[in-house]
Amino acid sequence: MSTVYFSSWNGTITDERQKQPAERLSLEDLKIPFQHQGKDLKALIGWAGLVIVDPGVDLIMALREFYRNMQKESCGRCIPCRAGSRVIEDRLTDILEGRGKEEDLLFLQEISKLISDSSLCELGISSPLPLQHALEYFRDDFLKCLEAGKPQEVSENIYRPILTAPCRNGCPAHIDIPGYIEAIKEGDYELALAINREKTPLVGTLGRVCVHPCESNCNRQPVDESLSIRLLKRFAADYGVKNSYDEKHKLPRVKEDADRVAVVGAGPAGLTAAYQLARRRYGVTIYEALPIPGGMLSVGIPSYRLPREILNAEVDLVTSMGVEIIYNTKVGEDITLDQIWEKDFKAIFIASGLHDSATMGCEGEDACYMGYMPGVEFLRKINLGEQVNLGDRVAVIGGGNVAMDCARSAVRLGVREVHLIYRRSRNEMPANKAEIAAAEEEGITFHLLANPTCILEDGGSVSGMECIRMELGEPDESGRRRPVPMDGSEFILNADTVIPAIGQVADFCYLNEDCGMDVTRWGTLVVDEETMAAKKPGIFAGGDAVLGASTVIEAIATANRAAEAIDSYIKKGKAGVGYRHKMEKHIEQLGVYREETVPQMVGDRERLDEEVLPVDERMHCFKEAELGFKCSSEVTGEAQRCVKCLRLGMLVL
Ligand SMILES: Cc1cc2nc3c(=O)[nH]c(=O)nc-3n(C[C@H](O)[C@H](O)[C@H](O)COP(=O)(O)OP(=O)(O)OC[C@H]3O[C@@H](n4cnc5c(N)ncnc54)[C@H](O)[C@@H]3O)c2cc1C
Prior knowledge:
CATH architecture of the largest domain: 3-Layer(bba) Sandwich
CATH topology of the largest domain: FAD/NAD(P)-binding domain
Bound molecules: flavin-adenine dinucleotide
Number of strands: 23
Radius of gyration: 28 Å
Helix content: 25-40%
Largest sheet: 6 strands, antiparallel
C-alpha cells in the first residue's frame, strides 16, 4: 500500500517526511488514488494543493508541466492567469536549466499570489496553490537545483492532467458543463449544443427530464442557489431545433462495409451507444421489442414532461447516421442472442432496461382483477395510444417519480379522484420535489404513512384496497426510517383502478445458461463497472438492466463507456475505457465538490426558473407543462451566474 510523504491537500498539512515509510499514513486514508492505468502515483498536483508519495519525484519538473497545462486551459480573459502561468513556466525552466537565481523564488511566490488574487475564475484562483506550497515546504529542492547551476536530467515522470469542475464531475456522463455555459454566455448556442452532443444525441431530452446531479454540485449553493444548468441545456437544444442545426451539420453516414455491432433496446442507453458507435464508423443494428423507439422516454415518461417531437428528432439524428432499428423484435422471443451472433456482428450491447413491475407482496395483487394495472403497464398503454378505462377513482401506490407520472397522467385522463398512497412520510419520498408539488397542485390526494394490505374486488373488478397506517421506526439499510404497520389501524380506500408503482424489474428472457452473462441477486446483469463488458468476450451491457432503476443520464454514461470499450475490443481485442473517465473517477475520489467552498465574486443575480403552464390548463391535456427559458436575455443572465469553478489537477506517475 502506498503511503503519503507529504500532503497539503484541501488545507490539511500531513507532513510525514521524518517518519519511516511503514509509519506513514496510507493514501487511502487521505482518499487519494494510488494507481492510474497500472502505474503507481508519485505525486498529485492540483487545485487543492500538493501530495508527494515518492520522495524522489522531480517536483520542479512536474510543477513546470502543471503550469504549462494551466496556460493551455486558461481562457485568456484574465491576463494574470494566462500570462502569469507562462511566466511561471519560464522561470521554472530557467531554474531547471541552470540559469535560475535565488531571487526567482521570491518572484515565483509573488507572481503566484498575484495570479490568485486577481483572477476571476477558479482556474486562476486555485492553480497557483501547489507552487506556493512547494516553495514553502520544498524550498530545499529549489535551492539544490539553483546550486547545481546546470541543466537537470530530464525526468521519466508521466503526467496526466485533467481540467474539470464540480458540476462536470457530478454529471455521470461528465458533460463539459463549464464549456457549454461559456458558449451560452457568448451567445454561441450551436457550440453549446455541439459540446453536449459529444456525449449523447439526447440533449433536448436531458434538458427536460435530467435529474441534474450537476446542480447539486454547483458551488453557488452556499451563496444563494445552484445554476439552472438543465434549463441552459434545454435552451441550446431547442435553439438547434428552431434553427435547423441538424440540417446544417449533417453527420456522415456509416459505410455499408463497416464492422457491425448489435444493440438490444432503443432506450437512452441503446440509442446513445448506437450514436457513439456510428460516430466511430461502426454499422449498428438495434433490436427493439416495441413498435417505437425511446424506451422509458417514450413509454414511461409522459409527453407533458417530454414532448415526443423532441425525442423523435433526436432518434432521427441517430438513424440519419445509418443506424438501423428493427422494431417489434423481442430478443429472446423473436430472435435469440445466438442468432444475432450468427449475423456477423463484432459485439453486442444489451440495454433492455426494466419493463416489468415489482410486486407489493399484498393479498390479491396476482388475482388478475379488472382495474389492477401496474404503473409501467399503465404508462406504456397510454403512451402507445391504447384505451384504458380507469373509472372515477384511481389509487396509485408509491412515492417515486413513476408514481407521480402515473397519478398526474390519470388526472390528465379526466379521472375525478386520484389518490396516492405512500408508506413513509413526505420527507422520505424519493420523487423530485417539483413533481410532488405539481401533483398536489393538480389535486392529487396524498395518503402518507399508509400501505395496502389487500386488493378488494367486486365481481372480478377492483373495488378498492384495505390499507394499514404506518409509523416510522429505525433507519433501514437505505438510511431512511423503516415504516412499521400500526396494529388495528386498517382502513378501506375505495377505488376503481389500483396502480402499484413501487419499482421495476427486468425481463431477461434472452438469457440462457451458455450466453455468458450472470445476474446479480438484485436482478441486474453482471458487467465490469468500467468497461461494461460481460464475462463472455464481445458482450457488453448498460443502462437500467445493469444499474437497476436509475436515470437517463446514468444510462447515457454507461453507454458512452461501453461504446469506447467496444471500439477498443474490436480494434485491439481488449475492452478498455479512455483516460477522461478514469481521471474523473480519481477526481471524484478527491472530492472536487466541497460544501464549504464559497466562490468569490458571485454577483447578486438570483436563480431564474422557468415558467410553468397554469394548473387549470395543464390538468386537462398532455401539453408540455414546463416551458423553459423564454429568450436569450434570460438564458445569458442565468449563464452569467456561473462562477466557472474550474479545477486543474495532474497525476505524476
Ligand atoms: C415512468 C418513468 C419516469 C421516469 N422519469 C425519469 C426522469 O424524469 N428522469 C430520469 O433521468 N429518469 C427517469 N426515469 C428512468 C429512466 O427512464 C431510465 O433510467 C432509462 O430510461 C433507462 O434507460 P435504458 O436505455 O437502460 O432502458 P429503457 O429506457 O428501459 O429502454 C430499454 C429498451 O429495451 C427494449 N427491450 C427490453 N427488452 C428487450 C428485448 N428482450 N429485446 C429487444 N428490446 C428489448 C425496451 O422495449 C426499451 O425500448 C423514469 C422511468 C420511468 C419508468
